[in-house]
Amino acid sequence: MKLRLSTSNVINGGTSIVRRPTSEKSNVELVNGLRSNFAASKEASVPVENGNVAHIAGEQNHTESKDKPYTLWTTLDGNCLNIPSSNQEATGLAEERSDYDITVKLFLLPNASFADWRRHLQDAVAVVLHQLTVVSIDLLIISFPGVSFDADSEEKGGCGSSKIQATESELFDAIVDIWKMVEKLQVDGVALKTGVAEFGCDMLKTFLPRTIHRPMVDQINVRDACVVPQPIMELAKQERIELLTHNDCTNILPQGTLRELLGDGPDGAGILAGSDSELKGLVGDLSPEWVVKYTAVVRDRGVIEHKGYFASADLSQDTPG
């Protein structure tokens, strides 16, 4: 079974300028957004008895919301459980599409198989396009597991990407393979610009000759966003690649965090069964696959109208309670 999680729009009250402390990682926003959306969906769900909506007083409904079965506020679409329900209409944009800059960042997670990356990219882009009711995005960035920028090594002239030997690794071959699909999205006009995350000098030098349409952006994480190592700056200028900085976690949704979010604990959603055999819920091996972050910024005003996350996980050997 697939689990599809959504934060909905984390920008409350419409358009807003978001300023987060630089020490706050994006997984904090993701986890809090998921937890908040789960709670709101539980609260809004109404039980159905004998085909009729059961009327529950607001106070009582609030008290009992944590104990509501997950089937009330989630929907099963084929083999995919949408958490919360996917029966809400897509939000769409308030103004013309041309008034927005839409950025999508896909995090491919460590537990996912390389063979599934193409499907994950396709699913993640499709769900964002549907959510915003658009047919294209302005910038698509891919973050790969096992690839991390090391500013200290970069300053010394070393490889600022990952600890693996990129030219010999299975990971590198998988990166090259999925980039072909990214290139097709660009050719088809779905992604107007494309980029990678956490590529240092050596990784870029090895990767660029294997591409037809080069990444236009390299998004790196440095401790001080004002101090970007000189070697990567020079290479990016030479290759006409725009350097951007970010504060995201590469492994944005670890397995333990996801199990805690969906589990039967005090802060859990009650979707996964706990140790109590009488507790209803799903059981199985949980494996996070990908997370996608999307933002829609109104160009002229520089404000974020939409920001949210979707996540996907695989639950094997599950049994409904």
Task: Explain briefly what this protein structure is.
With 321 residues, this protein is an alpha/beta fold.
Please explain how this structure is put together:
The chain is α/β, with parallel strands linked by helices. It is 28% helix and 23% strand. The protein has helices spanning 26-44, 58-64, 117-132, 151-155, 170-187, 201-207, 230-239, 255-262, and strands at residues 2-6, 48-49, 52-53, 75-77, 80-83, 100-108, 137-143, 191-197, 217-220, 242-245, 285-298, 303-316. The strands form two sheets. A ten-stranded mixed beta sheet has the order 4-5-1-12-11-6-7-8-9-10, sandwiched between helices. The chain has a two-stranded antiparallel sheet with strand order 2-3. Strand 6 (100-108), helix 3 and strand 7 form a beta-alpha-beta unit. It is globular, with a radius of gyration of 21 Å.
Question: How are the SSEs placed, and which strands pair?
Answer:
Layout: E1 2-6, H1 26-44, E2 48-49, E3 52-53, H2 58-64, E4 75-77, E5 80-83, E6 100-108, H3 117-132, E7 137-143, H4 151-155, H5 170-187, E8 191-197, H6 201-207, E9 217-220, H7 230-239, E10 242-245, H8 255-262, E11 285-298, E12 303-316
Parallel strand pairs: 1-5, 6-7, 7-8, 8-9, 9-10
Antiparallel strand pairs: 1-12, 2-3, 4-5, 6-11, 11-12
Key traits:
single chain, 321 residues, two-stranded antiparallel ribbon, 8 helices
Identify the strand order in the major beta sheet: 4-5-1-12-11-6-7-8-9-10
| Share of helix, binned | 25-40%
Tell the overall outline.
globular
Strand proportion, as a percent range, falls in 15-25%
Rounded Rg: 21 Å
Terminal residue distance: 14 Å
pLDDT under 50 segments (min length 5)? Answer: 13-23, 53-63, 159-167
- The averaged pLDDT comes out at 85
User: Structural class, judged by helices and strands?
Assistant: alpha/beta
Number of helical elements:
8
The beta-strand count equals 12
Element-level helix/strand string: EHEEHEEEHEHHEHEHEHEE
Major beta-sheet overview: 10 strands, mixed
